[in-house]
Amino acid sequence: MSNTVVDFGQWLSEHNQSERSLPRCAVLHCTADCDQVLAAGNWLDLIGHDLKLGLSLTEFCSRYVHEEDGAILQQLAGEGKKSCGRVVRLRQQDGRWRPLHTTATTLKPSEEGMPAVLSFAFVETVVDKSVIDDLSLQRRLLELVEKYSRVGHWHVDLQSGSVFWSDEVCRIHGVPPGYHPSLSEGIDFYHPEDRDRVDAYVREAQRKGKPFAFDLRIIRRDGEVRVVRSRGICTTDAEDRATGMFGTFQDVTEDVAHQQQLKATSVLLETILDANHNGYWEWFIAEEVEETSDQFWRLIGYGGEEDAARPSSWRALLDRTTLAQVDEAFADYLRHCTGKSFSVEIPFPHKEGHTVWILRQGKVVDWTPDGAPRRAVGTFTDISDEVENRRKVAWLETRFELASQAAKVGIWEVDPATHQVKWSDHLLPLLGEAPGACDPITRLHPVDRAAFDRFVDRLKMGEGEETLICRFQRTDGTYADIKLTGGRVEKEQYIVFAGTFQDVTESLRTERTKNDLWTTLKSETLDFPQKMRCLLKQASDYLGLETGIISHIDGPNYRVVEAVTTGEAIPQGSLLPFETTYCYHTYNKTEVVAYHKAGETSLQSHPCYQIHGLESYIGCALIVDGVRFGTINFSSHDARGGPFTQPERDLVALLAQWVGYEIGLHQSMEALRESQQRFELAAKGSSVGIWEFKLAQPNEIWCSEHFLENLGLPTYPRELKRTDFHDLIHPNDLEMARSALNNHLEFGQPFSIEYRLRHATKGYQWMMTTGQAQWDECGKPIRVIGSTTNINRRRLMEDEIRKRTKWLEQTNQDLDHFAYIASHDLRAPLRGMDNVAQWIEEDLENGQIDDAKGKLLLLRGRVGRMNRLLTDVLAYSRAGKLDGDPEPVDMGTMLADIATWTTEGTSARVEWGEGLPVIETIPTLIEQIFTNLIGNAIKHHDGTDPTVTVNYLDEGEQHHFIVEDDGPGVPQSVQPRIFKMFQTFGQPGTTEKSSGIGLAIVKKLVESVGGHLWILSPVTDRGSAFHVTLPKVMIQRRSTAEVH
């Protein structure tokens, strides 16, 4: 193969010089199999490339030839010998495309053994710019046509296997424009199940050289399966051998789907028509021929064509009037034909005599070129049951219409298709408009539009029955209150949103008036006469009448209790003869009595009408505590436009009940107030305060004037809020008070307690409260009444007596203990002194003067100890009874003074930290406490350098001092006894004698001001810690008699 190439190159080199001499011309030589290509000529001048390397024809095309023109070279090579010229675009050095006129010629070298040579000559062609522009325009138009017709073109070079796809073919396959697959890559897009069938079509086309067309499925790059329709032809050479294929691709996926759906629909239609027993007709209009299925004739009682009684045409069964209506319906359809079907309902006479209603419907499916109908098809459907149902529905609608007019109720619904609200004809007349005059929704109050839209949205969401009251404007500018009620109804595949509407203007006005009347009744700012006048005014305005009166009937007299009028004033207390009033006809009735035109009734001859001349009157009897009291009535001299409505009558009856109750309550309260005034006069002479609260109004407590004075509170108003009263109770007594009251209410236990209430200026005061509940017939408490007495002085005296008794008891105990100790401990030194005196007496008798003098010294020591003991006993007796007023004491300064006294002549040290407080106390008391504690620590130390430390803790309401030493400590076994009198114990290494009273004195001093003293001493380690707590507010217990 390499020799062949070399020889081929040598052969070509002989022709290069002559070919280079050709102006603007270049040559491409290749072997017959196109496997080896060599360039010659002026390639550099033509396209800016100097082609010297050997390439295959395929490689040359892919590098330099326009993708749409590569097949042209392949085709020229396949035509053999000498081909006619074609224009081929080659890529220039600058990237632009240059058209060159190209021819192909097969040359056979004279040397033997050399292969045949295929030569392509490329010559510069001069083309008119307009021709180029026209070609570009045509190519662009081709691209647009392919894009919008969704048809692309392709061609295949069977020799080289190259494939060209237009942009539309690329789009159909889901690949980017400019994608040109190999033949095998193109086949890979085919659906695996269609490849064999496509291969058979293509082979058949190549064998016979005929055009081909087939549908196949392709699988796009994104995995989507599409159906395409391919049409094409094969190109052949001079010997009729297939050299390539050219054709088109069209995406027909939707068309195929529609055809399949149409076919399925056709089958379904035929099945449905048979299943529903519908007849079928086909009308050839121009020929005036109509074919009718047998099923139609069976609908009206006839058999098939063999039925001799069957008419030749269904038209023969109709009378002239009905037939004219049928023809007019079809003519009207043609005049307004929009592509929709027409329908007409026809009453056909059944063979057996009764009428069968048939729905004839259809559509023109074929037209002549001039627009005339040519052919129509349709069905006959038996709708007799539907017509009968419509007749029944019409009758029901008529009945419903009459009922709706009577009840002023209408129907509304939401159209599922347009979402518009449809209203029955009742709404607009309610607003003063004729039915159909306008869309009622335009009369909806703008403020209510958003609420109405939410109402409809809630219905669509299926949240159950919904109700809305909104306002619609009347023609006179006023608004009617319309109540909408509706819901969502689902039935099979249908969903309906519908409901009713009703004018509730009057009922709402009545409800608002009732609410206003009730608010007036419950008012706490209006007194009884003001309430009655306000009620009469509100009801008169509601009824549209001039006068409102509350009367009291007492025998023959009619007395005006309260009255309001727009005319001449009616004085309170006015008296009229009862028989001359309209109420004469009302007083003994149980129902409301009303006249809207009294002059047209039997009253025209009665004195009430002849004297007062009232045309409009409505009244009702008043019942007070079960007894007829009088009447409440409203009237005017002018006649009303119509009778009093039932809501108006009901409101007057309700108002009569309320007013009757209020009159009874007022009378009871007046009687109670008089009784209360008498009671208060009696209570003022004592220290007792009275209170009451009702279980129905548990948050209010009524209090007498004296009760409030006992607490230093204002005497008006007389009511206390229950929460305010609870705030007056001492926190420690509140739960006890609640428990006592609950036990009284639930179990009937006596309610009597002593507790503390806070006085406005004197702090908490002791009170004694007793009370008694009142129960109804069911045993349910309804109110509690009680009294409260200030016992603060008594309780303070009792507390003082208890404290003095306790103090005396403790004093007696201390005295008994002191007497016992003194009788024992004071007797011991006396016995010692007696013994020494006897010894001295014996020494003197024996003449032992020196010995007697020595014993006198011992006697003097015993007397000194006795003196110290008596001094300590006196100090203990006076402990806690020091006189003097508290004053600020700087503890740091005091400890410095005490340290100086107690350490004088010793090596002891007293230490304390910073932050010692300044306390309010009696200085001598604090001085004695810390002198004893520090002095004891030094005296009983077993070493040579004692150290005493004083620490301080601030514990809120008390001072906490800690006196620590590093001495031998106090054994835990004796710690409980060290604060008792005359309790001493020896410690190894200490020689100090003690009377055993010092710590007892300290304890008594500390406790006399409400403090505490205790010791903490380690079990094994040295040292002791005395803890002293003193209240920041000290209580000094003073003696009533000094003990000497």
Compose a concise summary of this entry.
The protein has 1044 residues and is of the alpha+beta class. The protein contains 27 helices and 39 strands. The chain has a six-stranded antiparallel sheet with strand order 23-22-21-26-25-24, covered by helices on one side. The protein has a six-stranded antiparallel sheet with strand order 29-28-27-32-31-30, sandwiched between helices. The protein has a five-stranded antiparallel sheet with strand order 2-1-5-4-3, sandwiched between helices.
Description:
The protein is flat. The protein has 27 helices and 39 strands. The protein folds into 8 domains: 126 residues, PAS domain (Beta-Lactamase, 2-Layer Sandwich), CATH 3.30.450.20; 114 residues, PAS domain (Beta-Lactamase, 2-Layer Sandwich), CATH 3.30.450.20; 112 residues, Beta-Lactamase, CATH 3.30.450.20; 96 residues, PAS domain (Beta-Lactamase, 2-Layer Sandwich); 162 residues, 2-Layer Sandwich (Beta-Lactamase), CATH 3.30.450; 105 residues, Beta-Lactamase, CATH 3.30.450.20; 48 residues; 150 residues, Histidine kinase-like ATPase, C-terminal domain (Heat Shock Protein 90), CATH 3.30.565.10. Strands 23-22-21-26-25-24 form a 6-stranded antiparallel β-sheet, with helices on one face. By secondary structure, it is of the alpha+beta class.
